């Protein structure tokens, strides 16, 4: 007995109806309530007691203190809620075992459209061929990378946020079907019917960095690919990972605080196996990232706290994907399951990401220029107690815990630290490209500059990327060169502890000078003083490059080789001035009969890392007859990771109010024991790591009538991580 896809959908649809009717029993169960002049919050609790549903709402936006009457006998949940909220400016949406309450949106006008900042939308996605709901379809808000996924019934619920909501574009897609885009306008409910994509299964997809390609219909394993059009967004992003967020099923991108933080990508959950490249260059969650055949080195923690026992000395890590301008990326392919990543062995245990950069296309020289500018602001702002409220709560707490406590009167100061330290952010991005190709040569150069001033005061990022791709193809030869230098500079004074500052303390004294807030050490101090007097800057120089050569030996037999290098030089420089509490440490010392406070500190972390890899492989393909075909690859790979880390710290300077070199920190190795103390404010440490690996790999694919497919992978790795 043969089941077609439409038949299978019908079976699943009737099964869904059965499950829905079973689960809907508690909703259809009658509710009986007789209340008069009671707050809505009390009535909601009574409804929850009689059903299995939980009613969810934002107490700051939904007025549940309103008084209401309700008289129902054995009524359905929907009937009860409709009667309860009539005339109350409250809307509801029932989803599974939950009820979501929102403010009702008034009839739309040109004025309300301009002011609207939030709107809940919902909808259903169907197949146009058989009108069956599509589970797992993706809703994407074009230009943001944000969206939702439909449930078993093809339904989605999403909250639109931002300016000009009515102009937002909603794009819905599903594997094997044409995407559909419509404008939000003033609607809250949407219906999509998607047509089958007849060409998608014949698209050619890169399946490994060893030169193997397949049509989608021939792929064995789970592979998802985004092209340049898919990853283009309106908001300027410093790296590709933030642009693909929410666009690939099973791929979770974890955003870190601020710009340029380390990338965190989980493919189908978190793994537990570290990279064979070495404990210092791999984590248990990070996928293997390969750019044009070059394996990118992952920055791992050689931590200064290891040397000093002080976590404040730790190095901050950067995002390696910032080395590539998103505008220079042609495809972004994710290999997810064991069948897809098997050729990479243990290094692919957490998934593999293949990135190919753009190359020149045949024709006249093409010039391109684009500019993006915009503003940003902090979202989900926490509402803190004001000065008077804090003083009242503090007095109440101490009265209850301290016998004989006398209330401290309110000093009249009310400082909203979060508001003062977070303003509107700005970004500007410029991209210039030149490309073209002849019958034999291709070329493309891409220059990208990005400047981001974050909402947090004093935090900004400057980024410069250059991408050069040159190609030569003639007769049986195919040669490609990729060179990608980059520079990144980030300033980030430590002002992230604004949530801990008391609202009863002013950042300025009566005479206009900066005040002290009572928190000392690197993590403390007046944040405005940190911005004006301290230094916290990271500079990263990067160079990625690869050279590949291919030769067609005969029909169906091809040899290719590639050499790639990924170099990074990074310096993180921090100075904590003795003018403020962040640079004022406890204690003092005596040198040459002079007593100095332990003020002023400079910390420098320097990292230099180089990764190179070489690979050579033989690719073959053979059509045995009309029904049988076979293809595969066999090859070997060599790679090496080198990294050095230098930490230097100076504590205590004669003049702690200006930046000094670490070597200028006070030090006395031969003290006069009668008057001086043995003191050294200078600390230095160094660490090296070096890991290498030799690998052999092969893959064979067989298909019968393009209906049955077989895939086998073999890989053997010998790594210096395991010793001799």
Describe the structure in your own words.
It is a single chain. The chain is mainly beta. Among the domains are: 1-104, Phage tail protein beta-alpha-beta fold, CATH 3.55.50.30; 108-198, Carboxypeptidase-like, regulatory domain (Immunoglobulin-like). The chain is 12% helix and 44% strand. It has an 11-stranded antiparallel sheet. The protein has a 5-stranded mixed sheet with strand order 15-20-21-18-19, with no helix packed on it. The protein is built from 11 helices and 36 strands. The radius of gyration is 31 Å and the shape is flat. A hairpin with a 3-residue loop joins strand 23 and strand 24 (441-453). Residues 1-28, 106-112, 274-283 and 301-311 have low confidence and may be disordered.
What's a concise summary of this model?
The protein is mainly β and about 725 residues long.
Characteristics of this structure?
11 helices, single chain, mainly beta, 724 residues, 5-stranded mixed beta sheet
């Amino acid at each position: 007995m043969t089941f077609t896809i439409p038949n299978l959908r019908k079976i699943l649809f009737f099964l869904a109806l059965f499950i829905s009717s079973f689960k809907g029993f508690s909703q259809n169960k009658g509710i009986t309530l007789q209340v008069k002049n009671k707050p809505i919050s009390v009535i909601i609790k009574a409804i929850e007691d009689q059903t299995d549903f939980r009613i969810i709402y934002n107490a700051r936006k939904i007025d549940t203190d309103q008084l209401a009457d309700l008289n129902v006998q054995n009524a359905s949940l929907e009937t009860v809620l409709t009667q309860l909220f009539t005339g109350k400016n409250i809307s509801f949406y029932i989803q599974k075992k939950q009820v979501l309450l929102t403010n009702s949106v008034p009839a739309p006008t040109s004025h309300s459209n301009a002011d609207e900042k939030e709107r809940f939308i919902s909808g259903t996605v169907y197949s146009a061929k058989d009108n069956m709901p599509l589970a797992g379809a993706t809703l994407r808000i074009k230009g943001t990378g944000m969206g939702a996924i439909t449930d078993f019934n093809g339904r989605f619920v999403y909250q639109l946020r931002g300016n000009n909501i009515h102009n937002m574009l909603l794009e819905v897609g599903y594997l094997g079907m044409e995407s559909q885009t419509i404008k939000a306008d003033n609607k809250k409910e949407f219906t999509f019917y998607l047509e089958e994509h007849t060409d998608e299964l014949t698209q050619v997809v890169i399946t490994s960095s060893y030169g193997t390609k397949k049509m989608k219909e021939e792929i064995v394993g789970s592979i998802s690919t985004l092209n340049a059009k898919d990853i283009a967004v309106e908001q300027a992003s410093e790296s590709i990972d933030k642009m693909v967020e929410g666009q690939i099923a099973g791929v979770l991108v974890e955003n870190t605080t601020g710009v340029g933080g380390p990338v965190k990508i989980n493919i189908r959950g978190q793994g537990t196996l570290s990279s064979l490249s070495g404990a210092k260059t791999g984590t248990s969650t990070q996928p293997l990232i390969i750019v044009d055949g070059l394996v990118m080195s992952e920055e791992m923690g050689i931590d200064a706290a290891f040397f000093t026992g002080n976590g404040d000395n730790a190095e901050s890590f950067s995002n390696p994907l910032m080395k590539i301008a998103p505008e220079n990326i042609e495809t972004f392919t994710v290999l997810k399951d064991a069948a897809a990543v098997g050729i990479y062995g243990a290094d692919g245990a957490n998934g593999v990401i293949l990135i190919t950069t753009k190359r020149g296309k045949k024709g006249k020289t093409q010039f391109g220029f684009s500019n993006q500018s915009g503003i940003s602001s902090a979202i989900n702002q926490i509402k803190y107690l004001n000065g008077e409220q804090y003083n009242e709560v503090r007095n109440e707490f101490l009265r209850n815990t301290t016998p004989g406590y006398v209330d401290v009167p309110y000093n009249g100061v009310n400082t909203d630290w979060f508001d003062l330290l977070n303003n509107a952010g700005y970004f500007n991005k410029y991209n210039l490209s030149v490309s073209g190709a002849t019958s034999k040569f291709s070329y493309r150069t891409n220059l990208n500059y990005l400047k981001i001033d974050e909402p947090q005061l004093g935090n900004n990022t400057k980024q410069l990327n250059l991408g050069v791709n040159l190609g030569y193809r003639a007769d049986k030869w195919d040669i490609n060169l990729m060179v990608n230098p980059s520079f990144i500079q980030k300033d980030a004074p430590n002002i992230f502890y604004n949530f801990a500052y008391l609202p009863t303390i002013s950042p300025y004294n009566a005479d206009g000078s900066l005040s002290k807030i009572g928190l000392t050490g690197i993590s403390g101090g007046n944040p405005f003083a940190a911005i004006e007097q301290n230094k916290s800057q990271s500079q990263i120089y990067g160079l990625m490059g690869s050279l590949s050569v291919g030769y067609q030996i005969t029909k169906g037999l091809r040899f290719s080789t590639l050499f790639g290098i990924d170099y990074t030089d990074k310096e993180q420089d921090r100075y904590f001035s003795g003018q403020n509490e962040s640079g004022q440490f406890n204690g003092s010392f005596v040198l040459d009969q002079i007593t100095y406070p332990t003020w002023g500190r400079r910390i420098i972390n320097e990292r230099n890392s180089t990764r190179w890899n070489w690979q050579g492989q033989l690719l073959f393909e053979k059509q045995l007859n009309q029904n049988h075909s076979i293809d595969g690859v066999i090859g070997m790979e060599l790679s090496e990771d080198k990294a050095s880390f230098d930490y230097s710290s100076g504590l205590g300077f004669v003049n702690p109010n200006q930046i000094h070199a670490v070597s200028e920190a006070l030090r006395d190795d031969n003290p006069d024991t009668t008057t001086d103390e043995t003191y050294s404010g200078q600390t230095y440490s160094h660490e090296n790591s070096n890991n290498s690996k030799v690998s052999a790999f092969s893959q064979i694919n067989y298909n019968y009538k393009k209906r049955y497919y077989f895939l086998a992978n073999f890989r053997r790795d010998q790594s210096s991580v395991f010793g001799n």
